[in-house]
């Protein structure tokens, strides 16, 4: 079955129909979902979702754009939450220079990115990394943190095949979602050509990044067959093979 390795079902976009939507997943061929926190509040709501739904797992971390929420007290609180059952990863953490261009803000992002990599090392959990317009600094922080010892996935990978080659050397996975179906995603398709299917995870990042033909609408895991179809065509394999291999990849990484 399809394994959605990155979703945000605690987002307000799902407030009106969350129960009905999640109840429909098995019937739509979706077997597992990792719900991913982005700030301290969503750590709580992600844990609540994982507790309620047997097929939902939790990734806990603070997104770079919310790094200002962190201090030593909240960081210690986050570390304690990582010990709770059904937590399978530290994430999403990383760097985002698209919105935040001030030097001090970017420095804060790098500091808390490194500290949350330390959390992964302390807990033995893999990592979900968000990186936007920050390829060089992301790789530098990961290299300093010996990311190859931690294991993880580059969420919503959007960089070049050269960057992909470096991450492949570390044995990491790549989160591939709706962007692969966009007409202007040439760079991503070139990178995917070089990434073995055994290193790819399916993801939605819902409610964001719905694939064609639903681009611009609210996304959810039921849209992943469009990504499966695109990957199957590009890799020259069956859709069933894409689903089976990416599911096993996710189960291996998240140990579920």
Q: Descriptors for this entry?
A:
8-stranded parallel sheet, Metal_Hydrolase, 256 residues, alpha/beta, single chain, 8 strands, globular, 17% strand
The helix fraction, in percent, is 40-55%
Stretches where pLDDT is under 50 for at least 5 consecutive residues are none
Percentage of residues in strands: 15-25%
Q: What's the quaternary structure here?
A: single chain
The description of the largest β-sheet is:
8 strands, parallel
The tally of helices reads 9
The whole-angstrom Rg is 17 Å
What overall form do the CA principal axes indicate? globular
| End-to-end CA span | 14 Å
Mean pLDDT: 97
Strand order in space, largest sheet? 1-2-3-4-5-6-7-8
- Tell me the total number of β-strands: 8
What structural class do helix, strand and pairing data support? alpha/beta
Give the helices and strands as they follow along the chain. Answer: EHEHEHEHEHEHEHEHH
Give a brief outline of the structure.
The protein has 256 residues and is α/β, with parallel strands linked by helices.
Overall description:
The chain has helices at 18-23, 40-52, 72-81, 103-123, 135-144, 161-169, 186-194, 224-235, 239-254, and strands at 2-7, 30-36, 56-60, 87-96, 127-132, 152-154, 173-176, 200-202. It is globular. The model has no long low-confidence stretch (mean pLDDT 97). The chain has nine helices and eight strands. By secondary structure, the protein is α/β, with parallel strands linked by helices. An eight-stranded parallel beta sheet has the order 1-2-3-4-5-6-7-8. Pfam families: TatD_DNase. A divalent metal cation 2 binds at residues 130, 155. Keywords: Hydrolase, Metal-binding.
């Amino acid at each position: 079955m399809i394994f959605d390795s990155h979703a945000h079902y605690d987002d307000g976009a799902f407030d009106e129909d969350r129960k009905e939507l999640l109840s429909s997943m098995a019937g739509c061929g979706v077997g597992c979902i990792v719900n991913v926190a982005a700030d301290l509040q969503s750590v709580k709501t992600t844990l609540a979702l994982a507790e309620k739904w047997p097929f939902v797992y939790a990734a806990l971390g603070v997104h770079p754009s919310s790094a200002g929420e962190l201090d030593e007290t909240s960081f210690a609180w986050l570390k304690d939450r990582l010990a709770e059952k059904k937590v399978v990863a530290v994430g999403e953490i990383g760097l985002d220079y698209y919105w935040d261009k001030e030097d001090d803000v970017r420095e804060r992002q790098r500091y808390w990115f490194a500290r949350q990599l330390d959390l992964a090392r302390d807990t033995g959990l893999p990592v979900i990394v968000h990186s936007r317009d920050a390829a060089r600094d992301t790789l530098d922080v990961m290299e300093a943190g010996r990311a190859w010892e931690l294991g993880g996935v580059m969420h919503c990978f959007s960089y070049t095949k050269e960057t992909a080659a470096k991450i492949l050397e570390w044995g990491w996975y790549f989160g591939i979602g709706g962007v692969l179906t966009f007409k202007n995603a040439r760079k991503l398709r070139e990178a995917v050509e070089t990434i073995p299917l055994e290193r790819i995870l399916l993801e939605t990042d819902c409610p964001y990044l719905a694939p064609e033909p639903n681009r611009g609408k609210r996304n959810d895991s039921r849209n992943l067959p469009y990504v499966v179809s695109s990957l199957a065509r590009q890799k020259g394999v069956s859709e069933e093979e894409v689903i089976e291999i990416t599911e096993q990849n996710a189960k291996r990484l998240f140990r579920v």
